[in-house]
User: What shape does this take?
Amino acid sequence: MNLSYDDIMAAAAEIGFDLCGVTSAAPLPDEKSRFAHWLAGGNQGNLGYMERNSDKRFAPALLVEGAESVIVCGLAYGVPNEAEGCTDGKRAKIAPYACREDYHSVFRRLLPQLAERLGLNEKGIRWRAFTDSAPLAEKALAVRAGIGRIGRNSLLITEQVGSRILLGELVVCAPTDRYSEPVAQNPCSGCGLCIERCPASAILPEGGVDTRKCIACRTVEPAVTLGEEGTAGWLFGCDECQVCCPCNQKAEKIDNPLISTLFNPSEFSAEWWTEISDEEFVERFGTTPMSRAGAERLRAGAKKL
Ligand code: SF4
Ligand code: SF4
Assistant: This one.
């Protein structure tokens, strides 16, 4: 049974997604070979999970048996909380997406709603929802689904909202009557500002990011100690290659209420961060992406501010 492309787009808009595209679940061999080259350069550092399941990552039907289509949905947070730093003048940078409800929870709530609106269960069509939660090449699928193109900063860049977009996918075991057209022209002009401004020189000239250097990877991934050399001033995430990007400066500023800001880092002092108790951390940040780091890592990172 073919699903209707128009019904999918309408249902996604009704739920509140800012962008949606549909692509087939066919393998992505070119992206797989680029990824293999990136891995061969050791750019995954100690993110060992990147090395596993490469076959599944680039072939959704190996991840979900019988998969035929992938619906890629995006939530925009185009109005970042520009405020950063501490009440005592020290720097405590936290990426804007992390000051919001954890997008994993948001997509876990919204994607089943999309499946329900499309009547997938009643039609006996199997589906699975993903957001960063499994080896699935979501940026590559988003490109094929016409959401955007990859910029030199290795982020997905959309014409509408720049790179400030969070992605979730519904992998569906049914074809659709048509698929989205990929974006013809890359919104990234290749200006190189992101490379110039990256404080860690982590953006590779041939594309991709060296996670061993990238502050976002080093402050978010549990395998790394916060406050290590090169991350001082950052508590969670990094945003420099997005702040400087002209695509974001000229993009429509959409702040999706489904993923609204929960706190502003500039409300706290550096000392407060070093002393936050486990309980207060959970109470204040337990529903944000910061919970991934945990109180202990945040306290350690704050000592280096
Ligand atoms: S800063 Fe320039 S080169 Fe980098 S992603 Fe944006 S447009 Fe592309
Ligand atoms: S997130 Fe920060 S450290 Fe990582 S590539 Fe972008 S600017 Fe560089």
Q: What stands out?
A: Residues 151-153, 188-194, 244-247 surround iron/sulfur cluster (ligand 1) (CB under 6 Å). DSSP finds 13 helices and eight strands in the chain. Strands lie at 19-24, 69-76, 93-94, 127-130, 149-150, 156-157, 165-172, 234-236. The chain has a mean pLDDT of 91.
